[in-house]
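REVIEWER CHECKLIST
Item 1: Sequence provided? yes
Item 2: Single chain? yes
Item 3: Sequence as submitted:
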Amino acid sequence: MRVTLSLSEPQARTSVERAIAEMRMARPVLLDDGGQGSVLVQGLEDLTPLHAAELDAVIGGGARLVLPAARLRRLGLTRTENGSVALPKVDCERIKTLAFEIEARIDAPVRPTEQLDEDALELARLALALPAVIVVPLCATVAADESILRVRADDIRGYRADQARTLTIVGRAPVPLEDALETEFVVFRGGEGLRDQIAVVVGKPDLSEPVTVRLHSACLTGDLFGSLKCDCGDQLRMSVRYMAEHGGGVLLYLDQEGRGNGIANKIRAYELQSRGYDTYDADEMLGFGPDQRRFDFAAAMLRLLGIRRVRLITNNPDKVEALTRAGITVAAHERVFGRTTPENRRYLASKRDRFGHLIELDAERPRRDR
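Item 4: Structure as written out by the authors:
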């Protein structure tokens, strides 16, 4: 008797996760819109002249370059919507100029995006790739090799919400910390893309009262290496210390490096900042809006821990609004201040002035011990 092996997970989630992996490996993916049409999507990060020539020979002038609104603004347009530019030829130099060059300007009419263009950009974001893609509509004269992965576009559209709904705890153990000896790490599978998320439970918080909570997006450079370019490491350690000294709490350590852009794009933005651009402008040059993060899965983590009401430690009003929208009651919130250094002063001022964070620089606030 022959037995057929099938996947226990929903096919929709599995296909999107495979598509994310393909995009991260710079391989093309087919997006299928349920019989309404299909497009080939190619990321740009590893596009070479040879690869561009191979694409051009196959597609014969039917491609378009899809760019986010942030990048189009850097190209000289006043625009709040994403758009696409026709590619009569898959010209590697022109594509990279439009997608990446600092001083580039738009060189052709920009058309509104179609739904599959938006889905292609979302796939690039899920893969933590630069948000710019080549999209090729498939037709009678353009066929795709069967080896190219095919994914349904509506599965991509629903992927983030599905991940939040299917979040599960996969491990937990006590991990004493320097400033909080009674601490438990709880690992969740799911959330953003293919990454795990962590809750650091400090002490034994009283779940019948609003629990002190911080949503802390991972910052490799600041949290681990003590970078002077930000105050993330200070906020992390000060929040844990505060919880240990005030009845416990929960710090959600979320894999959302670089405001959700990923570590590679964060370092690209740092390189632009080294040339004199602030964090907002650097991200926009790369095609990113002010903040790519979502916090619906953070709310799901809290619910799995039995937490419905919180006292939030944050300088970011968006986190308060996001948790409230996700059904978590924010009974109160308070700010947390790290050190101001010559290296991070401009960064902190940009977060205050351009992102709306509730930040006071050292010279603007009284000293306090948190």
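Item 5: Key structural point noted by reviewer: The two ends are 68 Å apart (CA to CA).
Item 6: Recommendation: ____
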